[in-house]
Write a structure and sequence with these properties.
By secondary structure, the protein is mainly β. It has one domain (about 30-195): Porin. It has one helix spanning about 5-20, and strands spanning about 30-40, 45, 50, 55-65, 70-75, 80-90, 95-115, 115-130, 140-150, 155, 160-170, 185, 185-195. The chain starts with a helix and ends with a strand.
């Protein structure tokens, strides 16, 4: 997907927020909406000859949220994520750019602490959709743990929820290969804004 197509998708989602945002607060138990997020990615690799550059990415998708009671809720947030990672082999100064277009499915549990401030914890499944033609390939199936905090800001016709979270990969982000035994760990700090 080219950058122009990604931007068009973002504008379509943002443009539809007003028409699809919930206009009443009658159904506080079940909510749905959209969100945009930005990531700062920190990859760690144990191989001393390879340097991994910190990079940024973005994503957008849907939110489906159920309030189990006044202080406990669960949410499913399927979305698309777009990133590029740069690895540098330091002895010969060669670089490798890995395209990371992925489908992400987080399941989150939120616990309300004070007023509209909530702690968030959960698990995330990340499927890398982009084709990998390089010697180092990203693992297709990834599992991550996440933790963070969110704050709900209620308006007349919708609720905006900024959320800051940290994600930690539980498996090797590189696919197995007979050419190497490198282990790359995913981690990221994410800022998202949800509209419900």
């Amino acid at each position: 997907m080219t950058l122009s197509k990604k931007l068009i998708c973002c504008f379509l989602i943002i443009g539809s927020l007003k028409s699809f945002a919930q206009s009443t607060t009658e159904n506080e138990k079940l909510k749905w909406g959209f969100f945009l997020k930005g990531n700062v990615n920190f990859f760690q690799i144990k191989e001393p000859t390879i340097d991994v550059k910190t990079d940024v990415g973005f994503g957008f998708g849907n939110v489906f949220s159920i309030n189990l009671n006044k202080s406990l809720g669960i949410a499913l947030e399927p979305h698309l994520n777009f990133e590029r990672h740069t690895l540098t082999h330091t002895p010969n100064n060669s670089t490798l750019k890995l395209k990371d277009n992925s489908f992400v499915l987080p399941l989150k549990l939120s616990v309300k602490l004070y007023q509209e401030l909530s702690l968030v914890a959960g698990a995330e499944y990340l499927y890398v959709r982009s084709k990998q033609n390089e010697e180092l390939k990203l693992q297709k199936n990834n599992y991550l743990a996440l933790a963070g905090a969110s704050y709900a800001i209620k308006f007349k016709h919708f609720t905006m929820v900024p959320e800051l979270s940290y994600r930690l990969g539980l498996n090797n982000a590189l696919a197995e290969s007979p050419l190497h035994d490198y282990e790359l760990k995913r981690s990221a700090v994410t800022f998202a804004v949800k509209i419900m």
